Amino acid sequence: MTSIGQSTDRFSSAPWRDPEDDTLRLECGVFGVFGARDAAAIAALGLHALQHRGQEACGIAAFDGARFHTERHMGHVGDAFTGADLVQRLPGNMAIGHTRYSTAGGSFIRNVQPMFADLETGGLALAHNGNLTNFLTLRERLVQEGAIFQSTSDSEVILHLIARSRKAKIVDRFIDAIGQIEGGYALVAITNKKMIGVRDPLGIRPLVLGDLDGKPVLASETCALDMIGARFVRDVEHGEMVVISDTGVKSLRPFAAPAARPCVFEYVYFARPDSVVNGRSVYEVRKRMGRRLAIETGVEADVVVPVPDSGVPAAIGYAAESGLPFDLGIIRNHYVGRTFIQPTQGVRELGVRMKHSPNRAVLEGKRVILIDDSIVRGTTSLKIVRMVREAGAKEVHLRSASPPIKWPDFYGIDMPEREQLLAATKSLEEMAKFLEVDSLGFLSVEGLYEALDCAPRDPVAPQFTDHYFTGDYPTRLTDREIAEGRNDQAEKQLSLLVSA
């Protein structure tokens, strides 16, 4: 779910973000439950499990049989949706929820989801994970036709398309709207009588169907089902719409869908390790990535150390394959939030130590293999390498459990433009020198596909969305193509309203 402001560098210009923090962010998680008592409380628990998919804002919408009730907050789920009065504030037996991380210019309440609209057919609340690659094109057309936008989010475009459809039934309106959007998305919505889930035609963004004591549940990941004690039923298929009502779960295939191409970065970084994504255990995939990384980039060393937390499963696999000991040479502080990010350069230099502390007993005098999930711009990696050396490491060998990231993303990952990606601008030797390491190694694309336990990558029809490594985008980038055709380098100003 994207939100556009004034800066062309979405990645570094979020209003609160440390410009030297190059951690990737996935922009949203969605959850929905139908026909369950105290549905909002269940949704809040589901959002707790999806907090890793968006930490900036959260929201819940519930329907009590007569009216919709919504709450949207900046901040974490645990701070926003607590208290014994939650189900009084948000009554009803069906609810949807959303966790959000915004891109530049979008950190304000009017962009927080779920979004709501009054239609002639009744109310509609919508939560959206992903990005529309023709968002600006659609928005421009809708504005010309008289639409009034209250946010700068592409999610609102979907609401307008549904509202302006001339179809009689809400499901047909959804189909009408979906036929006009492009990109990667997972949608969860509730109407007066139904809950609807939709996954994009390539299955780029994940969505699963669960069962809570006979009550249907939709969620971005299976870890949310585990949190509420629900049973995993199946993945929502690529290009599928599930319509849930009192009569059960109905599956629709409104469009011809090509072969699925789910996002491979769900396995590399975004999904929680205890989730199962598209039938694969994320934890086991990451361990296999580490094993393959050891085979491809092995080096003599004394200890394998993960960059916590996302590097841990790959480091376990690397250590097992290489026969080297695995140890916690870096300890992560889980209680540091954005409040601690200060504007002064001197304090920024200490920022990495607020999040990661060296374990000198493990590092001192050792040849250390550092395992991270990925390397983006390299700024955070450089700080960690320096910290490990200052703790007494004799050698530092950095290994990435993903291939080199060379291309930006437009499907829901907050990622820099190409000229800011380290691997897109430097050779392996130049990167190693920049990162001040004794050696540097990346998992190959072939090794990644092997770790995913599938056939070798098909260059004509890749099995996964992997453009960040290959430059092979799975869909048209309509807005970008139009902007390039106009030679328009400045990002559109979508709203004149600045929220405090």
UniProtKB/TrEMBL annotation:
Catalytic activity: 5-phospho-beta-D-ribosylamine + L-glutamate + diphosphate = 5-phospho-alpha-D-ribose 1-diphosphate + L-glutamine + H2O
Cofactor: Mg(2+)
Domain of life assignment: Bacteria
EC annotation from Swiss-Prot or TrEMBL: 2.4.2.14
Alphabetical list of InterPro entries matching this protein: GATase_2_dom, Ntn_hydrolases_N, PRTase-like, PRTase_dom, PurF, PurF_N
NCBIfam families (UniProt xref): purF (TIGR01134)
UniProt protein name: Amidophosphoribosyltransferase
Species assigned in the record: Caulobacter flavus
